[in-house]
Amino acid sequence: MIVTLAQIDFRPEFWLYPLTDQHMLMGTLTSVLVGMTCGVLGCFVVLRRMALIGDALSHAVLPGVVIAFLVTKDTGIVGLLFGALLAGLATAVLINLVSHHSRTKEDSAIGIVFTALFALGLVLISNLPRGTHFDLKCFVFGIPEAVGLSDLILMAVISMIVLTTVAMLYHPMKLISFDPVVAAAMGLPVLASHYLLMGMISATVVAGLKTTGVVLVVAMVITPASAAYQLCNRFSSMLVLAGVFGALSALVGMVLAYVVNVPSGPSMVLVATAIFGMAMLLSPKHGVVFRRIRRWRHRQHIEEEDVIKAIHKLAEERIDAAPAAIAGQSRLAVERVLRVLRGLRHNRLIANSGDGVALTESGERRAIELVRAHRLWESYLADRANVPAADVHEQAEVLEHAHELADEVDETLGHPGVDPHGTPIPAQKQP
Amino acid sequence: MTTTRTQPRVVPPVATASPAIAVHNLTVSYLERPVLRSVTMEVERGQLVGIIGPNGAGKSTLLKAVLGLIDIDSGMARIYGEPISQARNRVAYVPQTSAVDWDFPVTVRDVVLMGRYGRLGWVRRPSRADRTATSESLERVGMTDFADRHIRQLSGGQQQRVFLARALCQQADVMLLDEPFAGVDAATERAIFDLFHKLTAERCTLLVVNHDLGVLEKFDRLLLLNQRVIAYGPAHEVATEANIQRTYGGRLSLLDRAENALREAT
């Protein structure tokens, strides 16, 4: 049962129990290692668009595990691992065979092979001799409480092997993931690296089965790596960050599962998903949040320039630049104008004068720059873009904010003296 | 490298001057449909050869067959008289830019450095010399200013130049290029041709798959291809209206129809 907030124990020693209790600690450490290793391997899976293969491997190891169980007569982890590795490699080979020797595309081939193997596993389980105990539920959903020292040691060995391999083969594996055809043309062993990757994923997945279970372990492969993908421009940083995210998901997931009293596998997956969600929102380049902020800043910048121009215009017409007059001139609401004016005053672009405001020297420079850009764009639109004279003003109202390009426009047009309405264009600003 | 060999050569070349690229009677099919039929051609060292033909003519397949990336039904391809497996380091391949994911987390410099990986093999790390070669290649294609950008920020022409720089970085003397002018503006196209002519002057051999019929005279030789070799020879002789009509005409020759009939009968 999920507990309500009031029922949660907030004593630190209760929260740290998964790290302080010796038995819980083994489950936690194993999960953290699984999370880290899955995260690192997940980078290759995500970048090579093999997410479906991750799912396939985790399901397809079932018959391997059952057969190993039948042969060795116990759930000793080494036997299971061996069975899973063989099943994993068999999956990879079968997928290759089906997609290369029939019209079937790779994604369908993956679907056919892993479901068949999983079904085979289920049939084998139902035919186990009476009295043997094979806990399918444990296999499907994971039970980290059942993790023992041997699992922890095994996982430590597997993560060490995987991380060393990735570090040693970092460069060729990067090229093979980015551009497998060119890698093959250079003579790099593309197929061997594919099977190596499949083998490493199978081993990690089977070691991770006890912590998250077959259904959810694929999330530990794909989700932390996808979160890192949102944030990184370098392959090396993506590998590191994905490992950190994986480990963090496992650690936080274990603690929360204990505190809130829910199964730990799903809890880890939900933490990983939360990290992914945050990465999606916060990614500096593509993130929703930063895009909103950039758009907001841009709009603010445009409003600012519109207000500066309005004050300039009012001053030319010798009208007091009171907020209401500015609002009328710039077509902004009065409260927007007031807010913009505060900002401009802060930046010393305007100062109070009489009943209204006046541009300071630097404010005046900005205004002239804008007027110049506006008139140059008007000339450009009339001259080069065949826009009717009646329409140039409206369009130039937008284009003037691209005043960085004004000098180029001036150059292109051969330094015109007046705009299409016959008004003089201010000269280029003095440096 | 070619002096002591234990295996017998299949093609008996004149020992002193094997052509840079030799394709002999090459036939390739995909799912039992022929893509290339009995293609034979030789490219002398230092030539710039264009491959012209419609979609599905087997242009890219020809490059991949020469590179040994696909199974061939019959025939052979040689680089300086040797099978490709013996000559990997002499050949650089520039795939179509659409073949890779331009969101992949690497910078321009990372991609160009990848040109050295063939020499590095499995475990060796890039050395200072490799990094110098990378900078020089970037300089040659005018991409130095973009070196530390992420590749997703590049335009079509810049993507092509990055791929060219990666190939230059391989310091190969045979280059196979698949549509290096796709998505490229006129100025970049001129710059790339200038680079090609400099490379051929350095005795580098270039085989270029091309779509654009407007630049045919810039190649030394042309291969007009539509599954078969329609014509192969010096550009000014081969690029005739009639040949291009035959290449793009799409009508099956008697030979094709005979082969189709025989295939269906079996």
Question: In brief, what are we looking at here?
Answer:
Chain A has 431 residues and is an all-alpha fold. Chain A is built from 20 helices and 2 strands.
Verbal overview:
The complex is a heterodimer of chains A (431) and B (266). By secondary structure, chain A is mostly helical. Chain A is built from 20 helices and 2 strands. Chain A has a two-stranded antiparallel ribbon. In chain A, a hairpin with a 2-residue loop joins β1 and β2. In chain A, α3 packs across α12, α4 runs parallel beside α6 and α4 crosses α11. Chain A is elongated. The model of chain A has no long low-confidence stretch (mean pLDDT 84). Chain B has a 6-stranded mixed beta sheet with strand order 5-6-7-3-8-9, sandwiched between helices. Chain B has one domain: P-loop containing nucleotide triphosphate hydrolases (Rossmann fold), CATH 3.40.50. In chain B, a hairpin with a 1-residue loop joins β8 and β9. In chain B, α4 packs across α5. Chain B has 9 helices and 9 strands. With 266 residues, chain B is α/β, with parallel strands linked by helices. The N terminus of chain B is likely disordered. Classes of the chains: A mainly alpha (431), B alpha/beta (266).
